[in-house]
UniProtKB/TrEMBL annotation:
Span of the signal peptide: none
Pathway(s) served: Cofactor biosynthesis; thiamine diphosphate biosynthesis; thiamine diphosphate from thiamine phosphate: step 1/1
Keywords: ATP-binding, Kinase, Magnesium, Metal-binding, Nucleotide-binding, Thiamine biosynthesis, Transferase
Residues annotated for Mg(2+) 3 binding in this entry: 39, 85, 244
Binding-site positions, Mg(2+) 5: 247
Superkingdom field: Bacteria
Designated name of the protein: Thiamine-monophosphate kinase
Residues that bind Mg(2+) 1: 55-56, 133
Positions bound to substrate: 63, 297, 350
PANTHER family for this protein: THIAMINE-MONOPHOSPHATE KINASE
Remarks, miscellaneous: Reaction mechanism of ThiL seems to utilize a direct, inline transfer of the gamma-phosphate of ATP to TMP rather than a phosphorylated enzyme intermediate.
Binding locations of Mg(2+) 2: 56, 85
Family note: Belongs to the thiamine-monophosphate kinase family.
Amino acid sequence: MSFKPISDIGEFGLIDRIASITAPTLETTPGITEGIGDDCAVYEISRSMVQVTTTDLLVEHVHFDLLTTPLHHLGSKAISVNVSDICAMNAKPRYALVSIAIPSKTSVDLVETLYRGMSETSRIYGLAIAGGDTSLCPGAMVISVTVAGDIEKENITYRKGAEPGDMICVSGTLGGAAAGLRVLMREKSVMMEHIRHGETYDKDVMSNLSDYDDAIRQQLLPSARMDIIGFFEKENIVPTSMIDISDGLASDLAHICKRSGVGAQIEESRIPILSQTRHIADEFQEDAMNYALTGGEDYQLLFTLKPENFSAISSHPDISVIGKITPKDDGLLLRDIYGMTVDIQSLSGFDHFSG
Ligand code: ADP
Ligand code: MG
C-alpha cells in the first residue's frame, strides 16, 4: 500500500473517494434523492415534501481563533453557516442538533455565551435547537451543527439544473468576509506582539476597527439569506440551480457547472463588492476581486434563473445578475473590465488540505 497524503488529492478529491465508498449505502433507503454532492442531503418525507439536512464543523485554530472571535458571534455563525446550506436548497430550517467538544478548563460562562449566540440567531431563523452531544477535546474547541429543514418537492433547488441561457445571480456583496479576516489576522499579530512584550491590549477588537466594521461583521457574523428564499416564494420563482458561497465565487460556480454539465461566463464589472472591501484590499496590496472569487465565507446565495424571471428580480436591491450559463465546452470564464476573457476554472477556492 503506497502512502498518499490527503494534500495530494485535496478536500474535494477526498470527498469524491468517500462518496464512491459510501454509494452502496444509498440503495438501502429509496427516499434519498440526493446524497453527497449538494449543499444538503435530500430525503422524501411524503408525496409532496422533502426533508433537507446539512452538517458543518467549526474547529478552533482552523475555522476560528478565540483571540479575535467573540464567543457570542461564533455561536451565531455556527448556526448561520448551516442555515445557509438549507437556504441553498430553497428550503426552510426547522431544527438543529449541536455537538461540542471542549478542553476541560473551558469556563462555563464561555460555553453559555456560545449557546446564547446560537439561541438568539436560531430564533431569528425560526429554528429549534433540539439536541446534540458533549465531549472532552484537549487542546481545541470543536463545534458541530446539523440542521434539518423541509420544502415542497416541486420547489427544491439543487446545484444541478442550470441550463445554457440562464442568468447567473448573486445576493448581497462578495469578498467582505475575506477582507474582514485579513484585518482580524493583522489585529491578532499586533495583539501577540503586545502580549510578547508584556503589555496589555484592548481585546474588544470590534470597537477599535470602525473603518472596517462591515467587512469584519461579514466575517464574524454572516447571516443566512432566508430573506431571499422568502422573496422567491412571494414571487413564485424557483431557481434552476443554487449553492451558497462558502468557498469563493469561482469554486462555487464551478460546483454548479460541474453538477449541471454546463459552462458559465461572468462579468467582472457586475460582481458586487463593498467599497470597504476594496479599501482593505488596497491596504494589503491585494485584489478585492480575488477576495470575491477565492476568499469564501460570504454565505451569499449564487443561483441561476430563466431569463423570463428578470423583471421579477430586477427591482430587488440586493440581487445582482453577474453573467450567464453557457454550453459546457465554453468553460468557466470571467470577462474582465477591459473585455478580456480569463479562464477561472483553475481558481480552486478554499481547500482544507491544500498548501
Ligand atoms: P458545503 O460547503 O455546502 O457545506 P462541502 O464542500 O462541505 O459543502 O461538502 C460537499 C459535499 O460533500 C456535501 O454534499 C457534503 O455532505 C459532502 N461531504 C463532505 N465531507 C463529507 C464526509 N466526510 N463524509 C460524507 N460526505 C461528506
Ligand atoms: Mg453550501
